[in-house]
Amino acid sequence: MNYSWAERLSGMEDPAIKNLLKTMQRPDVIALSAGSPAQSSFPVAELSAAFSAVLADQGASALQYGISEGYGPLRKWVASRVSRLGIQCEMENVLIGNGSQQVLDLIARILLNPGDYVAVESPTYLAALQIFKGYQARLLPIPMDQDGMLVDQLEAAIQTKRPKFIYVIPSFQNPTGICMSLERRRRLAELAARYEIPVIEDNPYGELRYEGEAIPAIKSLADSPWLMYAGTASKIIAPGLRLGWLVAHPEFIERVATAKQTSDVLSNSLTQRAVHRYVTDNDLDAHIETIINQYRLQRDVMLAAMKQHFPAGVKWQAPHGGMFLWVTLPDGMDASALLPLAVEQAKVSYVPGTPFYADNSGANTLRLNFSSPTPELIAEGIERLGKLLKSYMNG
Amino acid sequence: MNYSWAERLSGMEDPAIKNLLKTMQRPDVIALSAGSPAQSSFPVAELSAAFSAVLADQGASALQYGISEGYGPLRKWVASRVSRLGIQCEMENVLIGNGSQQVLDLIARILLNPGDYVAVESPTYLAALQIFKGYQARLLPIPMDQDGMLVDQLEAAIQTKRPKFIYVIPSFQNPTGICMSLERRRRLAELAARYEIPVIEDNPYGELRYEGEAIPAIKSLADSPWLMYAGTASKIIAPGLRLGWLVAHPEFIERVATAKQTSDVLSNSLTQRAVHRYVTDNDLDAHIETIINQYRLQRDVMLAAMKQHFPAGVKWQAPHGGMFLWVTLPDGMDASALLPLAVEQAKVSYVPGTPFYADNSGANTLRLNFSSPTPELIAEGIERLGKLLKSYMNG
């Protein structure tokens, strides 16, 4: 059909990702490509009780429209929950969205004009890149080392390109698993204040730490209107509930609420109430502890299998938390070119690294997921992938 | 704070609407300004049973991520449901969004470049105007008469301005209550095909008819890729569930799904399943019949009270369906200027007409809602408003 599309549409589209999603649905392929939490971890009975209790206690009022900022008691709970990360805030600092993905979309919507720069870690969450490109932003990829984004290079980029905001995933980053050091977090908070540029701290995985000491949130390091924090229920409760949150200055929240009002009025009233009920009636920390124990085991199974089956020259580092393991193949190898072989011959899938790079580099990198498959499938999938890599590298 | 906002933000903001929402929350004011369905009509027990049944039967899979197009069985149900409007389609023609508001937002996102024209009824749904202005569109308001949009004027506007799409609410329009005639619908479908311009048919109220014969949907009048149809569960089940749908050509649906993926990945998985379960296990038509009986009564109470209490010179027409009654005050009167008096003195609220007009005209018009307040409050509210109008017009 001869539809006349908006220019921004091309920025949102990535055929590689679309094909990938199709691959993941093939039942004969072991999906190490997932971005989803383990279904076995979802608190089904507790959520069922919470939905019933809300409808029994609040009745029809739980099904009516409400304000775009979200359900008050849930916003209060978020404010209290983030205080353990060192973030001091009130309900007025919180907005509820449909997952942190919508929070990022709304922020981009109220900040970005076409051509604006956005500084991002390189590599970073591929859907965030799609969001920013959908608003016709130009991306400023900043390299990372094992302590996270290289903030000296960021400052140089700020001085020359003046990005509209800086987007980071400081804890157990997607895709690399890297945790930004406290010192880098401090520098980032300072840069935000000095240059008056928002830092968007996306933290879906921060509570999923399997070893080591917690590092404070960037937003906790300064009482600054330039520091914004996004969290989500997707990785600690369940993603199908589509609940995430933004913590920011009330003046910023007010404008995000305007965008939310225009976008879809409000997030699901009943689900907001049920999730509030769930966290009130249950021990979320104990639940997260069971997820941590499960994912730690799965990570260790993956690491052990990689050690056993991956050929020399393939490199990785053990992440201290999160859901992903980042793999670097020898120079000259192309993970995108290898993927069809992996899927068709080895019957195992992963995500090639390139879509995570704003500059389309990273051909020899790939992302593995250890949260979604069972330990048995992880071991089998890594063995299959190891065999493929060996035959490919020797061939 | 010195945040640097995107240019599009100013298009989304309307301080008048923000103030209005605050007014509606005052417990001492009778809100005839609502846009919400009657809370008493929500099927609380049935929905509670549906949520429980889905979690009992489908377990954790009901809480996982899913495809952006929506839950297959719900999409199939929508395809079957719209067939009674004469629309022939399959699951592939349907996408589930967070209410029809998000459907409109996603359509605007993939079609509109800044400066593009959008043809709209004058007046029309004020949030649609905010969405289109948020994408920096220019609006082409087309006047209406009692049969709906004046399609001759639309065709003239198409020839000179070539709008990107045409947005209409053909049945029991918000705010006027007008139902577009079959002949006008036919002309609109012809214009869409002739000029290859999408017509977005927004139909939240179509099933709420209190008298007269049903008129086929515009989309049913031609098997055309240029006709798009948006529906919602908000007015026939409950708005807090945030479920709406788009029916369109599969090529169009595919691009809307791309925008949905970027925007918030998917709509609430559990709610999609629960609503599907609700419509499967219950008689939705019988439920809608009870809503119709309730709203017809409330409309008639409002009409009777208006006849009794409104002064000569104030004009209105009885709508055959929907939730709204449109009032025209004598020339020279200003409903926006009168609103503070209504709220502070008479303790009754309405929506002034101006925000519904793309060209900010309509100063002497206002919208009343009869779905949300009880018959007692409607009678009392209209009496208060009538007294105020009398004293104001005599003063």
TrEMBL record, chains A, B:
Alphabetical UniProt keywords: Aminotransferase, Pyridoxal phosphate, Transferase
Secreted in keyword set: no
Cofactor: pyridoxal 5'-phosphate
InterPro entries linked: Aminotransferase_I/II_large (IPR004839), Class-I_PLP-dep_aminotransf (IPR050859), PyrdxlP-dep_Trfase (IPR015424), PyrdxlP-dep_Trfase_major (IPR015421), PyrdxlP-dep_Trfase_small (IPR015422)
Keyword Ribonucleoprotein part of the UniProt annotation: no
BP GO terms, sorted: alpha-amino acid metabolic process
Pfam families: Aminotran_1_2
CDD domains: AAT_like
GO molecular function list: pyridoxal phosphate binding; transaminase activity
SUBUNIT field: Homodimer.
Protein family per UniProt: Belongs to the class-I pyridoxal-phosphate-dependent aminotransferase family.
Official protein name in the record: Aminotransferase
Organism the protein comes from: Anaerosporomusa subterranea
Lineage: Bacteria, Bacillati, Bacillota, Negativicutes, Acetonemataceae
